[in-house]
């Protein structure tokens, strides 16, 4: 294991990687329930989507760990499941079986792009300043998610967002936040994991009195449940190839591609998971894993899989190799049978970790040349629009568009590669999809 994952070379060890994998799992486990709750609105049976979700998480993260050897989890994407349900099935009135077929064909497109290294060229075409900005933007984004999950930041009619009410729930969040922060400052390797456990224990006694703020991820309905495999192979491959489905397939391709690319670049930059050329480590294999995950999702009965920004929690806990992803992958399997156990860890327990991961991911901001306005302005827009629009895709899309337009308008067209021009064109087209 030491040699296979090159633990010593990556300045890690088995204990750290196991803790990191457990931390990433705890931060990502909500998808086991959230994904089925969204897709069930499209008519897919909830228990079957739970099974599909767990299997996608397991096989995809396992492949990322063993094949790409990166500490990044792969699971059904949160923006993608909403697009599947509300835009495709409900909005366009496409049968969910046909929508699953579209997911499969999108995965095939991913595979072709990955095999022929086209996606690698796309990543390498992204300017360094935008890469650094994406990393910081994702950090701000997951910090915002953590604050919202804790009820520390809430919707305000007058100001759009604002501070939430100080109550037992938010005070528990703050206690967990400062507890975790102190452990990090004291360089405790298991700081993130211990913070999650501490906040869970602190939240448990007040759960009865503040049930609204501390609603568990799964309502307790027992301990065991047999997996439901009824969605496997239910995709409609024929009708999903109709011309009317081409925009849907393209939308899946574009959204998943830029979500996964931006997440992977951001995590790689922030955690220094780079090769000797300064490129994200094992890039082609990681992108191929993402492609296989999307193809597999269509077959198993889920929306597309993608690299998860919550992997930053495991990376923050010291995870640097594929053993982190492998550990998390196997932690998903028991929930084929014991999904109700997720109710033990409320969403508020991972909120402090999400907030503090933002600190880890702000480091790349120092590498942006803020004195060069043609680099700084697009980078700034990309960074702030990720949290402001609550969308990684929107942030990177406007980053590309602004970067290209500013370079063209300032007479620096020679700095734009053909690949970047093509990316910008597709980014602009996506705004009208």
Note down, in words, how this protein is organized:
With 433 residues, this protein is mainly α. The protein has one domain. The chain is built from 17 helices and four strands. A two-stranded antiparallel ribbon has the order 1-4. Strands 2-3 form a two-stranded antiparallel ribbon. Helix 2 packs across helix 3 (46-68).
The gist of it:
The chain has 433 residues and is mainly alpha-helical. It has helices at residues 14-28, 31-39, 46-68, 78-91, 96-115, 118-125, 128-149, 168-185, 191-203, 246-271, 283-300, 311-316, 322-332, 351-360, 373-388, 392-409, 418-430, and strands at residues 74-76, 153-156, 160-163, 305-307. It has one domain.
Distance between the termini: 46 Å
Number of strands: 4
Whole-number average pLDDT? 84
Q: Which outline best applies?
A: globular
What's the arrangement of strands in the largest beta sheet? 1-4
Described by its quaternary structure, the protein is: single chain
List keywords for this structure.
433 residues; globular; two-stranded antiparallel sheet; mainly alpha; 3% strand
């Amino acid at each position: 294991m030491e040699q296979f994952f090159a633990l010593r070379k990556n300045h890690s060890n088995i204990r750290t990687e196991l803790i990191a994998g457990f931390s990433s799992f705890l931060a990502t486990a909500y998808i086991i329930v959230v994904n089925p709750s969204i897709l069930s609105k499209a008519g897919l049976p909830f228990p079957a989507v739970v099974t599909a979700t767990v299997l996608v998480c397991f096989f995809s993260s396992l492949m990322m760990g063993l094949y790409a050897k990166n500490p990044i989890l792969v699971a059904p994407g949160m923006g993608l499941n909403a697009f599947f349900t509300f835009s495709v099935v409900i909005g366009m009135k496409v049968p969910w079986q046909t929508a699953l077929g579209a997911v499969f064909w999108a995965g095939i497109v991913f595979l072709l792009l990955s095999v022929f290294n086209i996606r690698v060229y796309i990543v390498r075409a992204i300017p360094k300043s935008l890469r650094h900005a994406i990393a910081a933007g994702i950090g701000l984004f997951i910090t915002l998610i953590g604050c919202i999950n804790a009820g520390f930041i809430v919707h305000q009619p007058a100001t759009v967002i604002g501070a939430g009410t100080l109550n037992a729930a938010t005070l528990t969040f703050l206690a967990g936040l400062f507890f975790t922060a102190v452990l990090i400052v004291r360089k405790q390797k298991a700081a993130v994991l211990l913070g999650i456990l501490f906040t869970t224990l602190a939240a448990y006694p007040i759960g009865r009195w503040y049930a609204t703020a501390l609603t568990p991820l799964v309502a307790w309905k027992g301990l065991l449940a047999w997996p439901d495999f009824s969605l496997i192979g239910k995709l409609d491959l024929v009708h999903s190839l109709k011309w009317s489905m081409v925009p849907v397939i393209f939308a899946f391709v574009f959204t998943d591609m830029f979500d996964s690319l931006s997440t992977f670049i951001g995590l790689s930059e922030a955690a220094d998971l780079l090769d000797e050329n300064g490129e994200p480590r094992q890039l082609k294999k990681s992108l191929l894993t993402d492609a296989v995950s999307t193809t597999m999702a269509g077959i198993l009965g889920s929306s597309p899989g993608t690299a998860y920004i919550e992997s930053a929690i495991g990376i923050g806990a010291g995870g640097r190799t594929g053993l982190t992803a492998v550990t998390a992958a196997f932690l998903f399997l028991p929930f084929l049978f014991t999904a109700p156990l997720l109710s033990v860890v409320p969403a508020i327990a991972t909120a402090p970790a999400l907030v503090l991961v933002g600190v880890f991911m702000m480091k790349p901001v120092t590498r942006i040349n803020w004195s060069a306005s043609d680099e700084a302005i697009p980078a700034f827009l990309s960074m702030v629009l990720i949290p402001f629009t609550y969308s990684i895709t929107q942030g990177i899309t406007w980053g590309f568009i602004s970067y290209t337009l500013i370079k063209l308008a300032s007479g620096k067209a020679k700095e734009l590669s053909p690949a970047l021009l093509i990316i910008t064109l597709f980014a602009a087209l996506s705004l009208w999809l």
